[in-house]
Amino acid sequence: MNISASILFLLIPVMAAAQNYQGMNEEDMQKMREQMKKMEACMQNVDQTKLKALEQRSRTFESEVKSLCDSGERDKAQKKAIVFGKEFANDPTMKEMTRCSDMMKGMIPEMPPVDKDTDYSDHHVCDDSSFTNK
Question: What's the pTM value of the predicted model, to 2 decimals?
Fold first, then answer.
């Protein structure tokens, strides 16, 4: 699926909810639509081939980590997750996507940023429900 279409699909409920949001008027909605158009134009410049490659890498990573967690190799899984997280955060395609999504700052609820320097020693990837058979 085209990334722009995906983003627009995800933002439709936000726009609908925004109509009922405190203080959101037609002018604010128009500003949001304009920002969405700018973001969509920016996203058109994101290399779809590289984006698909990132998606595939993410699937492979998830499968490998899940396998390591399932086999009790928690330390290997954690190291792999940290390395992957840093690579993902530094990937030029992800940086471009972040730059494009920054155009909507203040318009939609923000997701926490990916901090490549965060100490995750008190969080373990194998304890995440995405990587367990619980």
Answer: 0.59
Measuring CA to CA, how many Å separate 62 from each of 66, 69, 84, 85? 6, 10, 10, 12
Q: Which tens digits make up the pLDDT trace of 50-64?
A: 989 999 999 999 999
- What number of other Cβ atoms are within 10 A of residue 83's Cβ? 11
Number of domains present in the structure of the chain? 1
Task: Provide the residue count of the chain.
Answer: 134
User: Which domain does 37 fall in, by range?
Assistant: 3-131
Interatomic CA distance for residues 110 and 63, integer angstroms: 28
Query: Do the Cβ atoms of 93 and 50 come closer than 8 Å?
Result: yes
Supply the DSSP symbol for 103.
G
CB distance 48 to 3 below 8 Å: yes
Sign of the dihedral through C-alpha 56, 129, 108, 114: negative
Q: Which tens digit of pLDDT belongs to each residue from 106-128?
A: 665 555 555 555 555 667 788 87
Give dist(CA 79, CA 75) in Å, integer: 6
